[in-house]
Design goal:
The chain has helices at about 5-25, 130-150, 155-180, and strands spanning about 25-30, 45-50, 60-65, 70-80, 90, 110-115, 120-125, 185. It is of the alpha+beta class. The protein has one domain (about 5-185): Umud Fragment, subunit A (Ribbon). Helix 2 (about 130-150) packs antiparallel against helix 3 (about 155-180). The longest helix has 26 residues, at about 155-180.
């Protein structure tokens, strides 16, 4: 969905997500064409397979969740309580310099289990090497978000330098290791693989 009113698209997507969440199913979601917060892991406009109402969440999972009045796809970094003691989750987009606001577990709609590459091949986010990548990416995201906080007293220049180094390291690791850690999987039901019509 890339045309029409963004709020109408978000409402339609959220309604579909809630239906799939209630039935415990899986579905395919297309990221917005301007969604750059998870690069290089996910690209704008990319199709991702989502497991709705996942039984458990693990550090490194890429989650689909509600934030304010829109939907977000970002990485789970860990658990963290709200100031009033309620349980919460910490997330971050791989390409964002800072942490997202705390997330209530009830706002999680699903977990990304696969993504379609530009050549049409679906790659899985589960399995030993992919899980190791996800945990490493979560630790990377958390460490560099903390580094951004540490250099905040240095002003905007320090923040830009930390963000640039963060992106450089993540893109280099992605280039070298992502394909090694993520294997091709069968396309989600109803979604053709490469070369299919």
């Amino acid at each position: 969905m890339t045309t029409g009113d963004p709020s109408a698209r978000a409402s339609l997507l959220e309604a579909a997500a809630e239906l799939l969440e209630r039935t415990g199913g899986r579905g395919v979601v297309h990221l917005r064409d301007d969604a750059r917060s998870m690069e290089p892991t996910l690209r704008p406009g990319q199709a991702v397979a989502v497991e709705f109402a996942p039984r458990r969440l693990r550090v490194g999972d890429v989650l689909l969740f509600r934030q304010a009045d829109y939907l977000v796809v970002h990485r789970l970094l860990g658990r963290s309580a709200f100031p009033d003691g309620r349980p919460g989750l910490r997330t971050r987009g791989d390409a964002r310099p800072g942490l997202d606001p705390r997330l209530a577990p009830a706002d999680v709609l699903g977990r990304v289990v696969a993504a379609r590459r530009s050549d049409g091949v679906w790659i899985g986010f589960d399995g030993g090497p992919a899980r190791a990548w996800a945990r490493a990416a979560a630790w990377h995201d958390l460490a560099w978000a903390a580094a951004g906080v540490v250099v905040r007293p240095l002003g905007a220049t320090g923040g830009r330098a930390v963000a640039a180094l963060d992106r450089l390291l993540l893109r280099t690791a992605h280039r070298l290791l992502f394909a090694v850690c993520h294997r091709a999987v069968a396309p989600p039901v109803g979604h053709p693989g490469p070369g299919a019509v």
